[in-house]
Amino acid sequence: MELTTFWFILIGVLWTGYFFLEGFDFGVGMLLHPLGRTETDRRILINTIGPVWDGNEVWLITAGGATFAAFPNWYATLFSGFYLALFLILIALIVRGVAFEYRGKVDSARWRQRWDLCIAFGSWVPAVLWGVAFANIVAGVPINRHGDFTGTFFTLLNPFALLGGAVTASLFLLHGLHFVALKTEGPIHDRAKLAAQRVAPVAIVLGAVFLIWNQVERGAGWTWGPVLVAAVALVASLVAIRAGRDGWAFTATGIAIAAAMIALFGGLYPDVMPSSTDPAFSLTVHNASSTAYTLRIMSWVAAIMTPVVLAYQAWSYWVFRRRIGERHIPAVHVPGQP
């Protein structure tokens, strides 16, 4: 296998890991108000992801760094052309991270409510815009012969991309509901299960339309397999949550995310960023890559460090594997009450 192909696959794996892990904690943030009826409920929700949310973002940093090092021309075109969308995602992630740290710093209901809104904002915006960005990457954007993006921010807001944003938002919301059902007990667990049964049909329909549209327009023959796997996994998640199998439901949405990413990256290869202006101007794994020497050095670093990172993250999830309920949340003082 060529190193350019290897790194294309590895970057796809990194983005898949990011969407699998960050997807459910985006979902929890999106659910903070719909499921969190009381301060205790909201603290339960935040505590389900409290030990892991920042570790999940390592996958984003690694994916971005790998793209910069392995495919600098892809990185340059992507981050210049999608600058505003990626800037909004960055702002949302910063606001979200600060909100997690600061919501408990002051004993005030209004203070906490404001930071809770920031958590919701910082979860919804990336959940939508990542779908918009990836839909544009696979569909193609206007790129000239020099590899420069020639569109505007509004070029990215086309019907296919907006559908992609709706798909990622609904899928992350469902993934988050399954995670909440898996990690909690009591009334909030029951509400998460009920909400998952309502959200699942929406995610299934939106995901099916998006993936079939992509397949018909630009998909490879073999990528129909991952599309079918994604569809079956989403239906299986609905069956599992109704049967009370929370772990299987969460696993099923994770499989759906992975299968969808395989279908999208599989249909994209060997391009990394197709040009809608002229296919000859498209960026590929060959004309957008670094030198062979750079890719060899990166491969050795990845071979050494990736198992270490995976082992550490697996250990952290194992340590914090138990369910959380009201009995684990210390009483909180509500201003105005004795």
What does this structure look like?
The chain is 73% helix and 1% strand. The chain has 338 residues and is mainly α. It has a single domain, classed as Up-down Bundle (Formate dehydrogenase/DMSO reductase fold), CATH 1.20.1630. Strands 1-2 form a two-stranded antiparallel sheet. The longest helix is centred in the middle third of the chain and has 32 residues, at 187-218. It is globular and about 60 Å long. The N and C termini lie far apart (69 Å). The mean pLDDT is 91.
Question: Key features?
Answer:
1% strand; 2 strands; 73% helix; 338 residues; mainly alpha; two-stranded antiparallel ribbon; Formate dehydrogenase/DMSO reductase fold; globular
Write the topology of this structure.
Layout: H1 3-30, H2 32-35, H3 39-49, H4 53-56, H5 58-70, H6 72-81, H7 83-102, H8 109-139, H9 159-183, H10 187-218, H11 224-242, H12 246-268, E1 271-273, E2 283-284, H13 292-319
Antiparallel strand pairs: 1-2
Helix pairs in contact: 1-5, 1-8, 1-9, 1-12, 5-6, 7-8, 8-9, 9-10, 9-12, 10-11, 10-12, 11-12
